[in-house]
Design a protein that fits this description.
- The structure is a single chain.
- By secondary structure, this protein is an alpha+beta fold.
- Strands 1-2-3-4-5-6-8-7 form an eight-stranded mixed sheet, sandwiched between helices.
- The chain is globular, with a radius of gyration of 16 Å.
- The two termini are 22 Å apart.
Length: 183
Amino acid sequence: QQRCVILKAQFNCSHTMLVRVLEPADLDEYRALMLQAFEADADAFTSTREERAQQTVAWWLSRMAHPQDLGRAFGAFHEGRMVGTVAVEYADRFKTRHKGHVVGMYVGNALRGQGLGRALLSAVVKDAQARPHLSMLTLTCTQGNEPALRLYTSAGFEVFGVEPKAIFNGCEYKSKVHMHLSW
């Protein structure tokens, strides 16, 4: 299992950032950051803050490090504080176990544009590529979220479709762009 530091490098700012696999001790900080994400960037996610706030500790721990190794979460840390995160889910069914799905990508507004999103995405890709049976990652991005689409495209993800009316935010429908990265 990957418990080591995934990336420690100078980013576009003056401080060193750290990206690593999350551990159970990160639970409270991870949950708080994700609940912040569901509120701050509600249209980026298919779940609401309220739905996720009701999830059990076991659910959050499973998202961070699935007991059957079917997923894990990574955190980006700045000055010892978690400021970004992403998770990946792996399928266990024979016909779909060749792919993983990237979920829960978020970097707090104050540190966007510093390379953290790219570092988090790189950690997920490396994790997936280290699994011999995997050959593809998928993700969805809310249509119109140009910074996220640029990030995913720059990492090699390609659009393979758009799902109309994928989410309803209480006021309007939003479409989701479906993307994949194959190797």
